[in-house]
Amino acid sequence: MSRRVVITGLGPVTSIGIGVDKFWSSILSGKSGISRVKGYDASRFDTQIAAEIHDFPVEKFVSKKEQKRMDRFCIFALAGAQLALEDAGMTSETYPKDRVGVIVGSGIGGIGSIETQHEILRSKGPERLNAFLIPMIIINMGSGLVAIRYGFKGPNTSVATACATGTHAIGDSFRIIQRGDADAMIAGGAEACITPLAMGGFCALHAMSRRNNEPERASRPFDKGRDGFVMGEGAGVVVLEEYEHAKNRGARIYAEVVGYGMTCDAHHITAPLDDGSGIAAAAEFAIRESNLSIEFFNYVNAHGTSTHFNDKFETVAIKKVFGDRAKKIMVSSTKSMTGHMIGAAGGVETIVCALSVSRNQVPPTTNYEEPDPDCDLDYVPNEAREAEVTAALNENLGFGGHNAVLALSKLK
């Protein structure tokens, strides 16, 4: 019999709040973290807005010396891990360090460092490159640095499945604990790609909103007037623990991870299947593994990117999964506030689901003004809702056709 796994620590690092209390307060109030880009001159770009983290207290998490050796995404990974461990009350005595592992992924990795160092190469020559360039840019360094800082010698790897990264990282960590290869895992995603090259690339795909004069209203999942996603940055990291050990140490348990589904559309490099069958299959796998009646599931944190096709086809998928109950399911996209955090999205949105299950509060989909006939579910428009959440799904889709779904519930 597989072991039970629970979430005991949360580490959100977002444009609307760092740490559980600030983050959740902002989510419930519908606060937007989206503004005009300040990190570089975006005046030549079609999209000039993003959900940047301003006034990030970097020295709370990383020393000045370390900062010179790390990309911003790695700093976010360390910040998310620190917050999650503190929230879980985990110390060096909590677990033998060879029984704690780490999977913190990223969709894009150290692209900011690539851009900066490439300019140095062009203007000053190879001898001026940062000696730490390669460790700064590789995606697995998020996991590596967390393990090095805390001495965690258990399973350690990384995930890079674009926008499904964070959910895959948590789901894979769930499996590791289930089968007994670790007793605790630090898992999630980190991203820092609000950079000229990354933003320019997404602009070239015509994937991002051009509502530059109304930044806070630009991300509008499921709304008829949506015109693309808005880039975000940060990290979402959770502490997963084997249930009996968490209970015995008196840990606060937010939710139990009861199911995990992963599939591939095998269809297109950027577009999801128009019948929603790929993400629907992943959701059905997660629900089936939970051994809970589908009636228990009453909240879905949707991928909900604010792009035309994602929101339309994800609505189709939810209907495919829940059938006649679909319109009774509460669905929301918190990307309307945090922006789309790419590889960190699944980590942050798993945190949202854990808090919804724990506190019986459902976050809104903000900027929902004009219903779309193709998107006709209960998207919890504009205002948070007090409602018992018995079980929730977190859904994420990534370029390449990657689908990942986690099922969370109150303790069974």
Features:
alpha/beta; globular; Peroxisomal Thiolase, Chain A, domain 1; 412 residues
How would you sum up this structure in a few lines?
The protein has 2 domains: 5-248, Thiolase/Chalcone synthase (Peroxisomal Thiolase, Chain A, domain 1, 3-Layer(aba) Sandwich); 260-409, 3-Layer(aba) Sandwich (Peroxisomal Thiolase, Chain A, domain 1), CATH 3.40.47.10. Helix content is 33%, strand content 19%. It has helices spanning 20-29, 64-67, 72-88, 111-124, 133-137, 141-150, 165-178, 196-204, 243-248, 277-290, 308-322, 335-338, 345-359, and strands at residues 5-14, 17-18, 35-36, 49-50, 100-105, 156-157, 184-191, 234-242, 255-264, 297-301, 330-332, 361-362, 385-386, 391-398, 402-409.
CATH class of the largest domain: Alpha Beta
| Total domain units | 2
Outline the biggest β-sheet.
Answer: 11 strands, mixed
Query: What is the 3D shape?
Result: globular
What is the helix fraction of residues, given as a range? 25-40%
Count every helix, treating DSSP H or I runs of 4 or more residues as helices. 13
Beta strand count: 15
Termini gap: 16 Å
Rg estimate, integer Å: 20 Å
CATH superfamily annotation of the largest domain = Thiolase/Chalcone synthase
* Percentage of residues in DSSP E strands: 15-25%
> How does the helix and strand content classify structurally?
alpha/beta
CATH topology of the largest domain: Peroxisomal Thiolase, Chain A, domain 1
Overall pLDDT score? 97
* CATH architectural grouping of the largest domain: 3-Layer(aba) Sandwich
Low-pLDDT segments, ≥5 res: none
Secondary-structure element string:
EEHEEHHEHHHEHEHEHEHEHEHHEEEE
